[in-house]
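Handout, page 2. Input:
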Amino acid sequence: MDADGIHVAASPGVAAGGALSPGPDSAVAAPASSAAVVRGGADADAPPPGDAERARCYHLRQQELWSVRPVWSAKFVIILYTLVGAAFLPIGVAILLANRKMIETPQYRYDNLDQCNVGAVNLDNTTRVCTVGLRLDRDVKAPSYMYYGLVNFFQNQRNYIKSRSAEQLRGDFEPGTTDIDECDPKIREPNGEPLLPCGLTAFSKFNDSFTLCRDSACASVVQTTKDGIAWDVDVNKRFQAGPAENGYTDEINELITDPDFIVWMRLAAYGTFRKLYWVITEDLQAGVDYTVRIDASFPVESFGGEKFFVIAETRWFGGKNNFLAYAYLVVGGLALVLAAAFLAKYLRTAKGTAADEDVGDMLLGEPAVDADEVSQDGVGGGEAVAGST
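Output:
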């Protein structure tokens, strides 16, 4: 029995390597059966058909799985790089030209104004009112967008990300049943009742408010809306009102389903970020002195942060972004340069390239014999030529 558990018939006329050996009568003995021939090659370790477990893993162990190894020709590579360059360059130019026509105001910082300074902590939730004036250089067609931003506020910190309860935000919270330990350290009220919603993210919600006016007294307010500032999947699935018997009051449900709260709960990736505050639904005119009234309550002094707001337009590729345009231009230009270099190399070496059959003969070390010189009996009619160039 061999290593695979396959019986091989022992025949005196078969050697261990499968060759025939002379018997006692000096005569060549033929194998008694096909099983008397020892298997060789890759199939030597193949499991028997009845061993299903080994048969299933055999081709994986022997690295005989089907695979594709593409070998790209020079012509294909040149065409591919040319197409990439021809596609990326126009897109980069279009984005660059659109950026020049888009309006995006500077970042109007307001936490450094005395009227908007609420202190380092603001434990008593004091609200300070201040105004910031702005004037646009060009007309802005609706819709345009207003963003608020924070500097040196890291929503990507690990403990901050984990400190929330998805069940509470979905309206599935059940006191005594739902585990809210992941909200640590903001889990319970001072009286011991579960905090709803719990967690650092909900506890630190940005609570400044803005009003865009046409005059300094805010007698005429520009029309805006909160519709569409939050993602549909968040509004329809992840942030839902809960039943009153589980502690969801009208105030709590209003907070959880508030678009500003939903936008805040979708965490930013960097320490400096901006989030959408509203959509401006009417055109803004150039040369008009607009005023932004700010009701400030969010403290930033304790962690060395800053607060600002921005008004901007968007296009089919998003907000104003010169880096995206330059990235398309650089990739497209580099692709065309590589295509030109490969084409020059291909044209310079194409004339001296050997035929495919000659290359194969050289690699195999076999003489190149013309098929026309081979006679019908398989013997060359003329002298064989060595496989060299």
